[in-house]
Amino acid sequence: MVLVLDDHPIARQGLESIIKIHKPDVQILQAGTVKEGIDLTEKSQIDMAFIDIHLHNESGFDFLEWVQEKEIDMKTFVITSSSNENDFLRAKCLGIDAYLLKDAFIDDIVYGLKVVERGGKFYSADLIENVGNASEEEKKIDMLTRREIEVITLLRKGYSNAKIGEVLYVSEGTVKKHLSNIFGKLDLYNRAEAMLFAERNSEKLQLTLKQSEIS
Fold it and tell me: Which pTM does this prediction carry?
């Protein structure tokens, strides 16, 4: 059984028609919201789900995180208009089996479906080519240690050195050393600049933290 999660009825119907090309006898369920997708998954044996990331007023990531949290045995196939590198990397962290853009050819979708069924991974070629073309600021984040990312993330929230130390169970002096290292690696001069940097790159910082948790 296959689930199609997309907030646009026409997109859901179009994808169902494409899936039927390869699997004419499969039963396909449609959901327009994350809640509908979760309800259908709880009631039915879903073998594969096609998920759009950017839904109306919500995110397909919420569904993917729920699937991961519940450890549901299901193939997940993201098909979206988002070519954002952070979206792609976040989806990979959530164990997706395929990631394709909505402007893909029908043959690409069908081929991706076959690859996933065989246990492989299938990602949009255009997306793979662009991965790594991050901004200079995003590249600097890769030089930070996990602890330094934790420190600058808390700094973004306006925490004092003492409060950061309390949260991370380290001394205030240790926090100052981390901040000194952060300023050096990111070419920053003070807390205000660090806070602005963290605000601009909050998604990248959160993603890097999540990747370090599962590696």
Answer: 0.63
